[in-house]
Design goal:
With 699 residues, the protein is of the alpha+beta class. Helices cover 37% and strands 21% of the residues. The protein folds into 5 domains: 149 residues, OB fold (Dihydrolipoamide Acetyltransferase, E2P) (Beta Barrel); 250 residues, DNA ligase/mRNA capping enzyme (D-amino Acid Aminotransferase, Chain A, domain 1), CATH 3.30.470.30; 71 residues, DNA polymerase, domain 1, CATH 1.10.150; 88 residues, DNA polymerase, domain 1 (Orthogonal Bundle), CATH 1.10.150; 69 residues, Rossmann fold. Strands 14, 15, 16, 17, 18, 19 and 20 form a 7-stranded antiparallel sheet that branches. β11 and β12 form a beta hairpin. The longest helix has 24 residues. The N terminus is likely disordered. The structure holds adenosine monophosphate (AMP) and zinc ion.
Length: 699
């Protein structure tokens, strides 16, 4: 949804009072979008719309410098870090880049650099037709700073608001492309390497497929997926995500190690970092622009998203003298690519019904190539989106992929509107079962109200047998739909009661294939707890969350009991669920809500008769230094929260308890410990400092 209205007053027509009001509105609006983007990883508007807001703000400020607000968005980058991670103050701020939207802007930038210098010997080096600049693809991910001391990785931090970021050391350590130790020699004793954490298309697509199966919200684009994956309180989740790091800059360095960008990139490579092989040293603005055009042509075939080219003045002595203006360096600029758009016709608007009964409208398009990818569907999100953009079947529309893999309809071409194109009427009943649909007040989505809705039931069964759940071979979507139709399958437990004799008689089946299917089903009567939980299709509870629950509650009985206890959403069981790292209050509410539902209880009761859910198998004793050990934490830890420490210990197979006894193996003592430390001394339990603990935790 864009709030940038099309008929806003041009900047040069604004009165002073209007300008003042407009700056106030823009400050609020940009802050709102910054939060969505940087903290929630869930932007509401496209990058282009966001850039337009920022540009308008800058243009008004340029015309009325005395109106610049103390909280102006032009003075900061991003948003302050969220809670949950320790904060890191960057020794050198991590800045943003100014944008150039077209070649004219780029020429202006080069002129500005030249005009900055006076002395003839300087000017000679910075003439626009000869100045040396590094041109680098601007990969669309999130920037990250990695600090090395004595060649050893000691900290990873996000950019945050540029001054303070989040400590994501444990997360970046899980990336294969982040060296734990620098290679070669000749690195400064202290060096902060900066670069981009990003996700490539295949990994992104696979991740979204998994999330779709788990009914978890999809990531809008690889950049949001990268940000959401890096900023996980449980680094084990980060480790499962296909994240990469490429290095393009540095911050603090205990000694100078280079005189130019081109040379610095060589060093970074020698130390074990991945640098972008496309980066090119250009001489003069024309070469730089040629590189931009060249990369624009290659863009669609790269495995990762780039949204522009960054030009950086190559010589560091010049760079240093150029310095910074508020939030961006004067020696670099990002030359953006235009969004990838194309025109096509809306052939139909279809409504899909999800596992939770949500009705999602999808535009069926005349297939069209957008930035190298054939697009034939675009998500319309919900009823309001269709209304706001007034999209009708038959209209010609502009579709856009701006790093977003799910294409969007930007707007309709007004001239293409024919009086025959009827306004789209959002159905008030489910297109699959015909039951009334409901739109909850304050929400954008319509739901099918029928819990027995075939679309939902079939979707749920399909999820139940899917690879990361029961993984039943030979029971495809089509079979499920047919069995459901004929009353052979209603609930998950029915899967285990399928009669091979009945199936063998069905069209397309024989005795052998029927027996094969029931054998495949029987082979799954023993199931692990995490698969079992994942299979249930609880909203927001995919494989990762299911694992977390299994790891914590260990047995099915204990888990079900605890979820039932927690249904009133207060008390110890509720607290315990909420204390689990990686489970927010919304997810917790969805889980207990699901278990509280009578219908779901019956499903569980029936499944219990058919299955054996194995207890969660902790890592075997001795397989990690903490496996099978009992551990107690006391006092304040510096590097991680108590919750995180607890989650980590459990992940390594330890049991965490809150009081010290003779059975305790380790007591970890942080700052200002209480009586537990004394007790540990008395009982002669092994005491670990925070450093000792970190060594164990990271092993
Ligand atoms: P922005 O935050 O959009 O103003 O742009 C600045 C961001 O671009 C940096 O913080 C980096 O995350 C990102 N970026 C991607 N590639 C590069 C690169 N080669 N050089 C500098 N910044 C880059
Ligand atoms: Zn329905």
């Amino acid at each position: 949804m864009s709030r940038a209205s099309k008929d806003e007053t041009p900047v040069d027509k604004l009165s002073k009072a209007e300008a003042k009001a407009e700056l106030k509105r823009l400050a609020a609006e940009i802050t709102h979008h910054d939060r969505l983007y940087y903290q929630k990883d869930a932007p509401e508007i496209s990058d282009a719309e966001y850039d337009a807001l920022r540009r308008r703000n800058a243009a008004i400020e340029a015309r009325f410098p005395d109106l610049i607000r103390a909280d102006s968005p032009s003075k900061r980058v991003g948003a302050p870090p969220t809670t949950g991670f320790a904060k890191v103050r960057h020794p050198h701020p991590m800045l943003s880049l100014d944008n150039a939207m077209d070649e004219d802007d780029v020429r202006e930038f080069f002129k500005g650099v030249r005009n900055f210098f006076r002395a003839p010997e300087d000017v000679k080096r910075v003439e626009p037709d000869r100045i040396a600049v590094m041109a680098e693809p601007k990969i669309d991910g999130l920037s990250c700073s990695l600090r090395y001391e004595g060649g050893k990785l000691v900290r990873g931090a996000t950019r945050g608001d540029g001054i303070t970021g989040e400590d994501v050391t444990r997360n970046v350590e899980t990336l294969g492309t982040v060296p734990k130790r620098l290679e070669g020699r000749f690195w400064p004793d202290v060096i902060e390497v900066r670069g981009e954490v990003y996700m490539e298309h295949p990994g992104f697509a696979a991740l979204n497929r998994e999330r779709k199966k788990a009914d978890e919200p999809l990531f809008a684009n690889p950049r949001n997926a990268a940000a959401g994956s890096l900023r996980q309180l449980d680094p084990a989740i980060t480790a499962q995500r296909p994240l990469k790091f490429f290095a393009y800059a540095w911050g603090e360095a205990s000694e100078p190690f280079t005189k130019s960008h081109a040379d610095a990139l060589k060093h970074l490579k020698a130390w074990g970092f991945v640098t972008d092989p496309h980066s090119k040293l250009c001489h003069g603005v024309e070469q730089a622009l040629a590189f931009h055009r060249d990369m624009a042509a290659k863009r669609a075939s790269l495995p990762y998203d780039i949204d522009g080219i960054v030009y950086k003045v190559n010589d560091l002595d010049l760079e240093e003298r150029l310095g910074f203006v508020s939030r961006a360096p004067r020696w670099a600029i990002a030359h953006k690519f235009p969004a990838q758009q194309a025109q096509t016709v809306v052939k139909a608007i279809e409504i899909q019904v999800g596992r939770q009964g949500t009705l999602t409208p999808v535009a069926k398009l005349e297939p069209v190539t957008v930035g190298g990818v054939v697009v034939s569907n675009a998500s319309l999100h919900n009823e309001d989106e269709i209304k706001d953009k007034d999209i009708r079947v038959g209209d010609t529309v502009i579709v856009q992929r701006a790093g977003d893999v799910i294409p969007q309809i930007v707007e309709i071409i007004k001239d293409s509107r024919h009086e025959k194109h009827a306004k789209f009427k959002f159905p008030h009943e489910c297109p699959v079962c015909g039951s009334p649909a409901l739109r909850v007040e304050g929400e954008a989505a319509w739901y099918c109200t029928n819990i027995a809705c075939p679309a939902q039931a079939v979707e749920r069964l399909r999820h139940f047998v899917s690879r990361e759940a029961f993984d039943i071979e030979g029971l495809g979507e089509k079979h499920i739909a047919e069995f459901w139709q004929d009353g052979l399958l209603k609930t998950p437990a029915d899967i285990f009661r399928l009669d091979p004799a009945k199936i063998a008689k069905r069209e397309g089946w024989g005795e052998t294939s029927a027996r094969k299917l029931t054998a495949a089903i029987d082979a799954r009567r023993d199931v692990t707890l995490d698969r079992f939980i994942n299979a249930l299709g609880i909203p927001q509870t995919g494989p990762a969350t299911a694992k977390l629950l299994a790891r914590h509650y260990r047995s099915y009985k204990k888990w079900r009991h605890a979820m039932t206890e927690a249904r009133d959403r207060h008390g110890a069981a509720w607290q315990e669920l909420n204390d689990l790292h990686g489970i927010g209050e919304n997810t917790a509410a969805d889980i207990v809500g699901f278990i509280a539902e009578r219908h779901n209880q019956r499903v569980l009761d029936e499944l219990e008769k058919e299955l054996r859910v194995a207890d969660y198998a902790a890592p075997a004793e001795g397989s990690t230094p903490l496996a099978g050990k009992t551990i107690v934490f006391t006092g304040t830890l510096e590097a991680m929260s108590r919750n995180e420490a607890k989650a980590r210990a459990e992940a390594l197979g330890a049991t965490v308890t809150s009081s010290v006894s003779a059975k305790t193996d380790y007591v970890v003592i942080g700052a200002d410990p209480g009586s537990k430390a004394t007790k540990a001394h008395e009982l002669g339990v092994k005491i670990l400092s925070e450093d000792d603990w970190l060594k164990l935790a990271r092993s």
